[in-house]
Amino acid sequence: MKKIRLTELLIFIFSTELAGVLSGIIAGNSFGLYSSFEKPPLSPPSWVFPVMWAILYALMGASAYIVYFSDNDNRRKNLAVYGIQLFFNFLWSIIFFRFQLFGFSALIIAVLIALVIYMIMQFKKSNKIAGYINIPYLIWLVFALYLNIGVSVLN
Questions:
Q1: CATH of the domain at 105
Q2: Under DSSP, is residue 80 helix (H, G, I), strand (E, B) or coil?
């Protein structure tokens, strides 16, 4: 195994976390809004979301780091897919919370799920771990789509 380049790893993780933080800031009062929505069964309390997203963003950043330093010829393409899915992730909170376009935000998550499935498949070609550590993210996105559709129907 190659030596871990801690500074670079932290840059990948920090920049991914920053995308989530900026999206949350632009989205506005997501905690207050989430509390005011009628929610479907299995909806977690609002404190769960920042904890989950912090973990998932760290895993995403770590996977991008692994791909960046892999010997795979498609590394640039794979990182482009990573950037595109991160952009869709960034947009979702803004569309859902700031603009409350629940149907459109569900469409964004559906596209995001497809992108993440593709990203996982491509990352696995570079490094299996880089692909597999995004599976919790994919599962969370499927759950988020359920919640998004539930909020859309109930509100």
A1: 1.20.1260
A2: helix
- Please give the torsion angle defined by the CA atoms of residues 46, 48, 51 and 55, in that order, rounded to the nearest 10 degrees: -130
Domain range for residue 17? 6-23+45-154
Tokens of 112: 């995001």
Residues 6+ apart with CB under 8 A from 84: 115
The answer to the question of residue 39 being in a domain is no
The 3-state DSSP class for residue 131 equals: helix
In a domain, 37, yes or no: no
At 97, the amino acid letter reads F
CA–CA separation, 152 vs 155, rounded Å? 6
Cα 74 to Cα 65, 78, 80: the distances in Å are: 14, 6, 10
pLDDT tens-digit series, residues 53-81: 999 999 999 999 999 999 888 999 999 99
